[in-house]
Design goal:
heterodimer, A: alpha+beta, Four Helix Bundle (Hemerythrin (Met), subunit A), Heat Shock Protein 90, 6-stranded mixed beta sheet, 23 helices, 32 strands, globular, B: mainly beta, OB fold (Dihydrolipoamide Acetyltransferase, E2P), 4 helices, two-component regulatory system (chain A), Sig_transdc_His_kin-like_C (chain A), HPT_dom_sf (chain A), kinase (chain A)
Chain lengths: 798, 147
């Protein structure tokens, strides 16, 4: 593609975003002269540039749009919603043509006469029925995706390019003339394209204005003109109220990435030098090294800053989105944005753009009530969607809130049960907040109908995944009738993070510090001990059971045999909490995250790699992917409210439990009330038929099951049995030893995905597996059914 | 008639060639950090002047026997695929040969699949055959999965 066209595309994409949001502002307040001027200037610039580049179709549409805007500007035409919609349509058309231009390098074929005639008709004050103009679907991506660029400092929209000659006012003519005499733009680092344009410039121009011709013809280059308009604004005294002139140049992202690499390498080299110098007595190097160290740090900071962009860049599309939504849904919606200037790394910015858009759309569509309903409820007619961003620690916090109806707790509850995500009993015991969080579960949509706007597959689970992928967290708070607030917390930058360097299986790994809640030392002499439930490791931490993942074995590394002091890192990902068992915690370090080569992307447990101060490469663990290894254990909730709920249930009833051992491992327990009888029988009395065991018991054959299929019954001596009765039949469970009957609170903490086990609970200080009696009764019933016709299943129970 | 430069190298006694324009550098793969749970072809990741390079073992990639214990220290050639830096770990590097495109032959049809997909052609040198490798298919994750 032609360089000039490429540049034009990038620049225009930016202008169009501004136009979109400015137009919405304009519609709300048609008398705002500054906004109108701004829009006019932007459309005008697009038109002007098109002329130079010989893009006839674009120029025609832009010209018609400009003419209409000109009428508004002159006050000859009243701004109506219809008119604004029409202008928006023409902007959409421009986007469509630009899109075609981007793909082929040429303007796509097509006819804009319909639109142009409507624009002209409107400009002449005639009635226009705009229904015939179909809004154009423009792909949701930057117009010029193949040339990633970043504007280092955002240029205020008020300081846009000067007017193209031809229709300029006297003031503006003079301004352009002044710009020609203030040759700031001559310092442009890439002068060649300018020369080209100069040569071309006179051709498309019709009106003879030779004096302004040359300087203004440079318009396609954004930087010099911005600089020039800056000088001009200074010369004229900025009529917009003295907004500071921002000089900026465009730098390709590749260059910035390269700079970042160089700086991080320099930081590493400095670290090495410092280490060498520390080990030496002669300190001739000490002072200059210290200086180098400081400078390197500052350089690193500065380079990081070049990657920062205000979050407002991700919000630019939203005013238009909300305006369209409000028209389509027939709701009155105010969009309030706070903290647009809050900066974050451009990489993070790109990644949250789509989730944000989705959530704003959701709030407007599902969150806000229709206007009539709001009025009936005595709420202000205009619904409100509010975006706020601010820094907090090393994080950026983004809040998306609406003052709508709030989440429908009852319906979500139904849906949870329907989808089998939790049992009815479990759901009944949950707080509203816990219920609400299920909207982040995969495939969970409460939308009764799929509207044009939402419910199209992208669910909150995708939003959550996207946010967690960049080390962020999302939470929500909803109050019935008052609205819903989503809070997103993400690290400011992905490029440099603080990490803990840990050792496991003889190798070093980095764990991002943001997800590490605390470190617990375990081992022979330590206060905390790792316990085993079957094969699962758990740690008792403040009366809670923390599921553990052993890093070495998980990574299939040679198990470190030495009895090192072991550490458990308590890791929190979203709402999940688990413990990561490592051999050693070595250091904390600021690491520069580098992506892994594509050949390694299938190893999802690593999110990247980094180079340590000693030059070695360590892999960065992805706490999110590791948490999958913690299995389907019940997510340990962390909120205060949940803690309270647990405490409450603990104050409830004590339950009589029978403790027993069966099949090794942790003791097992079952509520005493489920057990019909305890029997100790002679092992020889057990009859075995085709691999199944049964006992002649009160005139009937009673099947005997064992707790796990992996071990058998006793061949001799006394076999203890727990006898359960179902509806009209009895069965027995063989156990190794009955330990005790105790009374304690039953708090099931973890629910492993194994049949026959309800979960794990701490009973009189011991971690016990709680038996799922129903599971065994069903198996017993199946045994009976195998033996005899169902109608004969009558045993005298008890 | 066009002449092309090839870096020639040896893996398991066999002579291979890689388009010299694709080869960034030749280095000793030292300080390798193994990547747990990765494919066997991955020898590890290493730091090469501030870049993280993924070392891929050519022997394993081609299904050859492992390097004998007494073999000299292996070398790696630096290649770039899809913007990622790779080091292809080989036994030794020979010389750079200028070869005529006209003498280039398509690979024979009876090669094992693992070889067939990474070989673009063969030169018949006086003493032996020079097998021209395609670094792209050699180091591309999609091809690796298929292998």
């Amino acid at each position: 593609m032609d360089d000039l066209i490429a540049e034009f595309l990038t620049e225009t994409a930016e202008s169009l975003e501004v136009v979109d949001s400015e137009l919405v502002k304009f519609e709300a307040n048609p008398n705002e002269r500054k906004t109108l001027d701004n829009i006019f200037r932007l459309v005008h610039t697009i038109k002007g540039t098109c002329g130079f580049l010989g893009l006839g179709r674009l120029e025609a549409v832009a010209h018609a749009g400009e003419t209409l805007l000109g009428r508004f500007r002159d006050g000859k035409l009243e701004v109506t919603p219809t008119a604004v919609t029409l202008v928006l349509h023409s902007i959409d058309r421009i986007k469509l043509i630009l899109n075609g231009l981007e793909q082929t390098g040429n303007e796509p074929d097509g006819d804009d006469d319909d639109l142009i005639s409507q624009l002209e008709a409107m400009a002449e004050g005639r009635e226009v029925a705009i229904e015939t103009v179909q809004p154009v679907q423009v792909p949701d991506r930057p117009i010029n995706a193949d040339i990633p660029e970043v504007v280092i400092a955002e240029v205020k929209p008020e300081l846009e390019r000067p007017l193209r000659p031809g229709e300029v006012s006297l003031d503006e003519l003079e301004a352009a003339f002044l710009a020609a005499e203030a040759p700031d733009w001559m310092s442009d680092p890439e002068p060649e394209p300018v020369a080209e344009i100069k040569a071309e410039a006179p051709k498309p121009e019709t009106k003879p204005e030779p004096k302004v011709e040359a300087p203004v013809a440079v318009a396609p280059k954004a930087e010099p003109v911005e600089a020039a308009s800056g000088a001009l604004a200074a010369a004229l005294g900025d009529e917009n109220g003295g907004i500071a002139t921002t000089q900026s140049i465009r730098v390709s992202v590749d260059v910035l990435e390269g700079l970042m690499t160089l700086v991080s390498e320099m930081v590493l080299t400095r670290n090495q030098l410092l280490q060498i110098s520390r080990n030496r007595e002669d300190s001739a190097f000490a002072t200059p090294l210290q200086r180098l160290s400081t400078l390197t740090g500052e350089l690193q900071d500065s380079v990081m800053k070049t990657r920062m962009q205000p979050i407002g860049a991700a919000w630019k599309k939203l005013p238009r989105l909300v305006r369209d939504l409000s028209h389509e849904l027939g709701k009155k919606i105010d969009l309030i944005m706070e903290g647009e200037g809050t900066e974050l790394d451009r990489q993070v910015l790109e990644l949250i753009r789509d989730p944000l858009t989705h959530m704003v759309r959701n709030s407007a569509d599902h969150g806000l009530e229709p206007t009539e309903e709001r009025i009936a409820l005595g709420k202000p007619a205009n619904g409100q969607v509010k975006l706020a961003a601010f820094h907090e620690g090393g994080y950026i916090v983004i809040r998306i809130s609406d003052n709508g109806r709030g989440l429908n707790t009852a319906r979500i509850r139904e849906k949870i049960v329907e989808k089998g995500l939790a049992t009815r009993a479990e759901v009944e015991g949950m707080s509203d907040q816990q219920i609400h969080r299920y909207i982040f579960a995969p495939g969970f949509s409460t939308a009764a109908k799929v509207t044009n706007l939402s419910g199209r597959g992208v669910g909150m689970d995708v939003v959550r995944t996207n946010i967690e992928q960049i080390g962020g967290q999302i939470d929500l708070n909803s109050i019935a009738g008052q609205g819903t607030t989503f809070t997103i917390k993400i690290p400011l930058t992905l490029a440099i993070v603080s990490a803990l360097i840990v050792g496991a299986g003889g190798q070093k790994f980095a764990v991002p510090q943001t997800s590490v809640m605390e470190l617990v030392r375990t081992g022979a002499n330590a206060e905390h001990k790792i316990e085993k439930i079957n094969d699962a490791l758990v740690l008792r931490l403040r009366d809670k059971l923390l599921p553990l993942v052993q890093l070495g074995p998980t990574l299939q590394l040679e198990a470190a045999t030495e009895e090192n002091p072991t550490f458990v890192m308590v890791i929190q990902v979203g709402e999940r909490r688990y413990g990561l068992v490592v051999n050693d915690v070595l250091d904390t370090e600021e690491i520069v995250v580098k992506p892994l080569a594509s050949i390694l992307r299938d190893v999802d447990i690593f999110s990247g790699a980094t180079i340590l101060g000693d030059g070695s490469v360590v892999l960065i663990l992805d706490p999110n992917a590791l948490s999958e290894r913690a299995g389907n254990m019940l997510e340990e909730k962390v909120e205060e409210s949940t803690e309270d709920a647990v405490a409450e249930s603990a104050q409830g009833q004590k339950v009589a439990m029978l403790l027993f051992r069966a099949g090794g491992g942790a003791p097992k327990a079952v509520e005493l009330e489920h057990i019909t009888r305890l029997e100790h029988i002679e092992a020889e009395k057990i009859e075995r038929m085709d691999g199944r065991a049964a006992l002649q018991y009160r005139g009937k054959l009673m099947p005997i099951l064992n707790v796990a299929d992996t071990y058998g019954f006793k061949e001799q001596d006394i076999q203890p049995l727990l006898v359960f009765t179902g509806e009209g039949y009895a069965m027995a469970l063989a156990v190794d030893e009955i330990v005790d009957v105790v009374e304690d609170f039953l708090n099931i903490e973890l629910s492993p995905d194994r049949p026959g086990v309800r979960g794990t609970a701490v009973i009189t200080g011991r971690a016990c597996e709680i038996l799922d009696v129903d599971h065994y009764l069903l198996r017993g019933l199946a045994e009976h059914a195998r033996r005899q016709p169902a109608q004969d299943l009558i045993t005298e129970a008890a | 008639m066009s002449i092309r430069d090839y870096v020639t190298l040896r893996v398991g006694g066999q002579l291979f060639g890689v388009d010299a324009a694709r080869v960034h550098d030749v280095f000793h793969p030292r300080g390798l950090t193994p990547v747990p749970l990765s494919r066997t072809e991955i020898a590890g990741v290493l730091n090469l002047r501030g870049r993280i390079v993924t070392a891929v073992c050519a022997r394993r990639r081609l299904g050859l026997s492992p390097r004998p214990a007494d073999a000299p220290e292996p070398l790696a050639i630096g290649l770039e695929v899809h913007g990622d830096s790779y080091g292809l770990v080989i036994d030794s590097v020979d010389e750079v040969l200028k070869l005529d495109d006209e003498k280039f032959h398509a690979p024979p049809g009876n090669l094992p699949p693992r070889w067939a997909e990474v070989i673009v052609g063969v030169y018949q040198l006086e003493k032996e055959l020079l097998i021209v490798l395609d670094p792209h298919t050699l180091l591309d994750a999609a091809h690796l999965k298929a292998a």
